Amino acid sequence: LILIGLITSAIWARYTTVELYGKYQLMLSFISMVAIFSIPGFSMSAQISAAKEKHGNLKLLFRKKIYWSFISTIVLATIGLYYQIFKNDMQIAYMVYIASFIYPLYNLRSIWESWLTAIGEYKKLSLIQIWFSLVGLISLSISLVLIGNIYLVIIITFTAIAISNILIIKYFQNRTLNDIEDDDLISYGYQLSWAMIIPVILSFDKLIISEYLSMEDVAIYSVAMIFPLYIKTLYSIINRLITPHITSAKSIQEAWKYLKPKLIKISILFFFMGVIGFYSIEYAINIIYTSKYQESGLYAKWLWLVLAFAVPATYLANILRAQQI
Fold first, then answer.
1. pLDDT by residue (tens digit) across 3-40?
2. Exposed e or buried b for every residue in 58-84, given b needs 16+ CB within 10 A?
3. Per-residue pLDDT tens for 67-126?
4. Residue 54's Cα: distance from chain center in Å?
5. Residue partners of 81: CB distance under 8 A and separation at least 6
6. Could you give the CA distance from residue 180 to residue 187 in angstroms, rounded to a whole number?
7. Which phi and psi angles does 14 have, rounded to 5°?
8. pTM metric for this prediction
């Protein structure tokens, strides 16, 4: 997954201008912003429902997620209209229009990822994630390298992911063990979504950079974030391994008893990763992304270090979320 991600981002760096890559990244940040309207807390509802064998909730969450995502579609279309009328930037406007049209089905990934995590289907989860990464790489290679069309990149990538989302969820719906529903777990997803406003606020970073600096600076910032985000990827992998035990725990004390010995090893791992990455990321960025993004290396190494040192403590919050506190 990391290798595919590096190849994908390297293609962007080498086959597009810095400005165009900045615009694409800005569009992705808009998608992150509007996610709050599609109830992101449903992912935790799915995770807990699977762990507690309330399998009837999968169908409900699937349907509700799509319904709420249409609000995000409207907001995205409004953003596109703003860039078309007031910014006179047709390129960003069309990119956002295309994404908004496909968004409701594109935005289902968190449901099946959380469900697979809770039922312990790690092999299937890994294979599906590799497939999603390959879809992005292949579509990018065809539409950008061979044809040179940014709109085709969005259409092909988003459509392929949307279709895959539907097939995956339908596949697991047909393999549920029961039809038991739990409205309280669904309601918990609504409540938890309020706590997810903070990540949405953080998604404004690229918008702020584009308004007060330039699209080129958005691209430089985005490349600087690539390596630090692999810290988040490792966090997610470890999280998937420990979450089923935490969500199935009957109390905070039971969950902490399971997590405590593992947290020490996790902390040591992230400490050494932070130090090694700090001294090597600048060289890696120059090699992979060319000298166009040399400035990204300075920001990347500090972001890497801070994230690596901060991650272990976040596993404690999983206990509170899983116990619905």
1. 787 888 888 888 888 999 999 999 999 999 998 899 98
2. bebbbebbbebbeebbebbbebbeebb
3. 999 999 999 999 999 999 999 999 999 999 999 999 999 999 888 888 888 887 778 888
4. 25
5. 93
6. 15
7. -95, -25
8. 0.81
